[in-house]
What we know:
5 strands; five-stranded mixed beta sheet; about 240 residues; 10 helices; globular
Amino acid sequence: MYQSNKNTILIKTYLTASYWNGKIPELLKQRFTDYLEITNNHVGFKDADDFIKYLGWSIDKNAVTTFPEMDVTPLVVQTIRDSLDICLKTIPNEINQIFVYPTQNAFVKESMNGVSGFTPTNNILILFVVLDNDFATALEETVVHEFNHSIFWRHTKWNRLIDGFVGEGLAEHFREDLVGGKSAPWSLKNNLEECKKWFHILDEKVYIYEETSKLPVGIYGDVFTNPKSEYPHWIG
């Protein structure tokens, strides 16, 4: 639990190896009902199946056999608390729940410095941490980045590609201003000319949130998380 003068935020972690090892499929199907009960809805997901499917990809249930036998929960929680302190001194927010899961997803390991985040609704953050990485810096940067998303999407709908550009740009500037660090790898992947070329191609395609699920679908998934898609990786 995180508490400040104006905020009470539940930090729910699922990080102990004994919780996961040898039980990934069963846990994905059965043990996240408490998550849905806590939030009283599917937190921006169309239904429980969508939520479980998202977790299955993010944790990488097909690659995981065991997680390292270490309990990093205290470090993870303290890093999140410290990051929230920095953010809330700058701007108020309505986040009230943060959920943290381990992952061995190759994309997160190789391309995201061992940490990824998602903001499915304005008041909830979901974080994924590679437990055997030196993750503290990346976790701090991710919390600050996602914190800004939760504010931006409260006031803006994602209808076109340009909305995604603005949202990601603001979140990265916010993160750089508050905690510093290098530019995100995805922000440097493609040169300006290539971005201009693909902007006009991608902007004509379905690059929006489904009204029923509030999840980025189709093109977004290919552009951001699939290096082998027909589009240049991270072009959008």
